[in-house]
Design goal:
This is ATP-binding cassette domain-containing protein. This protein is α/β, with parallel strands linked by helices and about 260 residues long. Helices cover about 35% and strands about 25% of the residues.
């Protein structure tokens, strides 16, 4: 059943479902009067891919940045792995962050480093005890997972937009995260490459048993990847359901995403 109302409480835990992310009454205002989040409530179950839709400026990216502490909310509760991340000290928060992969819109690769160096930098930063041979093995495995083993010595400037997204994803996967947060993973890509990235997200879920939140404007990506969709409007969750349920919504604003 689709829920379409101003404030939606998190879904009741269903049998055999384990919430891995729980957000309650999340609020964030920028400046004096730019109230972006006005009480967001959501739950993501273990192994689930949740897609969040919304117009530009609706707070989609702000929500997932709050989860990893890149943005501090004004109010609310965020529980990840049953830990309230807003109450954690820096060392404890960093331990949680290692278990969460974040794929930024542009891939966020270091332009002055080769692909190998980009991945090695991330790995050594968090796993300093690895030998050079182990680092190389992990790099090759991560690149193989995204189908770009032959790009290991290339510079970011030599890669297409789609390849940069794949390398960004490889850098995320190299730490073997349990949760992956995707921020507009197909933005700026052509239709064929966008589908390849969407299929890769789905493949990673099945291979790695990851849990994901996917922020996207790309309805083809949403249709392919989403177990469930939430729609943000005016700072709250306005509607929730599967792709098929929301596609048939009688709410004009919700249905506008599917036209």
């Amino acid at each position: 059943m689709i829920q379409e109302k101003k404030h939606i409480t998190p879904k009741v835990k269903e049998k055999n479902q384990t919430p891995i992310i729980e957000i309650k009454n999340l609020c964030k205002t920028f400046g004096k009067d730019n109230e972006v989040l006005k009480g967001v409530n959501l739950t993501v179950n273990k192994g689930e891919d949740l897609v969040i839709l919304g117009r530009s400026g609706s707070g989609k990216s702000v929500t997932i940045k709050c989860i990893v502490g890149l943005i501090e909310p004004d109010k609310g509760e965020i529980k990840v792995f049953d830990e309230n991340v807003l109450n954690l000290k820096k060392k404890e928060l960093n331990a949680i962050r290692v278990r969460i992969g974040f794929l930024f819109q542009g891939g966020a690769l270091y332009d002055s480093m080769s692909v190998r160096e980009n991945l090695a930098f991330t790995l050594k930063k968090h796993q300093r005890e690895l030998t050079p041979e182990e680092v190389e093995s992990e790099i090759l495995e991560a690149l193989d997972n995204v189908g770009l083993s032959d790009a290991i010595d290339k510079m970011p400037s030599e890669l297409s937009g789609g390849m940069q997204k794949r390398i960004g994803l490889a850098r995320t996967l190299i730490l073997k995260p349990e949760i992956i947060l995707y921020d507009e993973p197909t933005t700026g890509l052509d239709t064929i490459t966008s589908r390849e990235i969407s299929e890769l997200i789905l493949d990673i879920k099945h291979k790695r048993k990851t849990t994901s939140i996917i922020i996207t404007h790309d309805m083809a990506c949403a249709k392919l990847t989403a177990d469930r969709i939430m729609v943000l409007k005016e700072g709250v969750i306005h509607a929730e359901g599967t792709y098929k349920e929301l596609e048939k919504s009688e709410d004009e604003w919700v249905s506008s995403f599917f036209k």
